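BUG-489 | component: ligand-complex export | severity: low

The export step for magnesium ion jobs runs without errors, but we want the raw record kept on the ticket for reference. Input record follows.
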Amino acid sequence: MPEGWNHTLVSLKNFIAAQLANDTAAPSAPSVHAPSLPAGARTIPREQHNISRRQISDAALQVLNGLHRAGYQAYLVGGSVRDLLLGREPKDFDVCTDARPEEVRKLFRRNARLIGRRFILAHVQFGREIIEVATFRGGANERQAVSSSGRILADNVYGSLEEDAQRRDFTVNALYYNIADRSIVDFWGAWADIETQRLRMIGEAEQRFHEDPVRMLRATRFAAKLGFQLDSAIEAATPSCRELLREVPPARLYEEVGKLFLAGFAQQSLATLQRYGLFAALFPQLAEVLEREDQGAARELVQLSLGNTDSRVSAGKSVHPAFLFAAMLWPVLLAEQERLVSEDKPEAVAMQQAASAVLEENRGQIAIPRRFTLTIREIWDLQARFHRRGGRRPFALLAHERFRAAFDFLLLRRDAGADLAALGQWWQQFQDADGEGRKQLIETARLEDRDAESPLGPLPASENKRGKRRRRRRNPKQTSESVTVVESD
Ligand code: ATP
Ligand code: MG
């Protein structure tokens, strides 16, 4: 995962609580009901499951054993148990316990620190690894702070193991590996769901979505990542709950977007989100553009950028969120630019205004952090500069700190069908050439570029419509310095 996503879980867990400060619960708000536990949990003894301690990280084992030796209950829970049972490598190891955060801190002293305000968690660090230790959560039976639509606003009550199991989202996320005897505790029949690869909601799907609409995105994420089928109850509840995602603060949606698109299964995530009509909650304008008949190139660009991201993740390479979002929002930018040009705005002005508008709109939707939007803007702005190859300009562009990203972006547009093969090749040669070679390349470009009046080169909207290429055509009545004629044939 790229840097910055590591703290996601913590912020997610604390987000709901943090919102309470700004959000007041309606006095007549519905309360949260605990899904009733089936009679008796099933315990799967060590000899009947395949999780061995060797698969658990040293840091997680130290935390589990430390808690256990001090007389506390200690379980591995969530994605790690699920993933180990599925034979996958867990992303991280989360621990839950009946020890209060302050007790965890005392036990692990300098290795531990408490985080969060309302729902306090302990972070215990061994080596470079941080293990998140959460005290069993409870309170689902009590009247809780919820918004008028049932969204949980405060989530700060401690409870028992059973109560903790009632607060989790999906059955396969509520399996507990008990360090005391290495058994697995299964309250919800999750074992069978793992076997049949089914994602089933704990409790009533509609109510659980009302409590926290992000669970719909989590459902699609797990379906995409694990290749699981969504249970029919989840499928049935999603259409009527979709709109609830509008209530979710954009910053929390952004956290989820990162997990969906930057973790190695982005293409599958897109397909699953589209299938359940959830993509528009994250990228409304893009969802619209992608549905339009004439937007083959836009679909291609998005698919390519998601595919590249997935390949990079699986090859262990870094992925830059700004690059991916620059690509995902590019078709929206082009559509907006085209609209402005149709209102007689000059191309370059239209491009600038469109870029500002698209990023501004996004702030209210998924709130891509500013450090990334600045880079997105640079990548976009530099696209026009590839077309200006006179004098010292290519040298200045080459020296730009975003040159590499911007050039890769140019190639991505080319691969998605934009008419940029020659330009891409020229820039590749320019990078490889020595001083003399560069001079010659600039001279060749000078002759070609004489015609390119537009500061943007060919209007980028040309890649918007597959099979509807804009052509640069010299009007016979005009001189060789003729203007670009935009044709729609
Ligand atoms: P991943 O492999 O992506 O980390 P995960 O299942 O561990 O998957 P996390 O987001 O790390 O997912 O959350 C850890 C656990 O916390 C989940 O398995 C689930 O039990 C619980 N959880 C997280 N978010 C929610 C939520 N919104 N509602 C209910 N339970 C949640
Ligand atoms: Mg996790």
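Assignee comment: Attached the raw record above. The longest strand covers residues 129-135.
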